């Protein structure tokens, strides 16, 4: 495993910065609590990061949510940025910065996704269904083969850098936006640990077989693209919506002449909605669905549509990131959110959720089509409101799925 000393120093720097913001926020807390939200209001919520899931093991670090108004709250939605710096018992480093920024009077939206990972993930088979639980085969190809290895092993190490930024301009007062995005994904130093080409018979991983078939490098990949985007956004709050809906269509072009390993195109379709059963927003049914489709060409293996690789990495609970992957993937989830307890100073202090979702992915090389296999997930969690003006919640979820999957997830803000 690579030494993480320099990344640990980076993590300490971010932690100290985040804690400093938190201390400054605490000094101003009493004053800000008495002030109504206004242009320039900032709400900071630093929290420790503690959690566990099959891909990362035990996770520890620091995180923070910053919410602010770039215009008057009567005409401008609250913006939000989430920073996380985490380490894991499987010797991984994870640094993320995710943001949704609304300009004054909601004139524009900026969607940001910045990540650095010194990480590892199992190389699961493509598509959903029983064959996706097989980590390696004794045959070169994409058939079921013979299971080799441990389903909890970290088979593939890598470093990863992502820079996504999308600018959307408002074109009417009904919440419709159009715009462009720039997207860069770089995987480097990929070490496919389960691969054994010199054994008899050789042990072939799905990652190796895919790259050999489609002509990709086994140790690195680059995907760089430009997207054309349309968005409908009528949500009242990005952190914790009570009303409204969100829809997005994004067509991404990844030409080789600007840096992609191979030319390809992708389509992202997404929809979210929120239904209230009471006027006080204490009982909400929320739905979320998206389709991530490969329209033309071939994507690097790690850039194939996969669960948990959305902007905020919140799809697919209880499965670990990348557990289901394929040329095309669709996800749908429903969540019931209920307020339970209030305090004297916070009427939304404590709540709970139950959720269910389903994922399907295709693998054309092993003959798996969309909807041929659907993988369920379900679970429950609690919500603790740590900033009522920003509607910032800390969420703790536990879930179960197929193949003996279960996991604990710690969240800032709602899952969607």
Automatic annotation (TrEMBL):
Main location class: membrane
Keyword flag NADP: no
Signal peptide, first to last residue: 1-22
Keywords from the named record: Membrane, Signal
Subcellular location: Membrane
Ranges for domain Bacterial surface antigen (D15): 215-386
InterPro entries per UniProt: Bac_surfAg_D15
One GO cellular component term: outer membrane
A Pfam family recorded for this sequence: Omp85
Keyword Amino-acid biosynthesis applies: no
Protein name: Bacterial surface antigen (D15) domain-containing protein
Organism: Echinicola pacifica
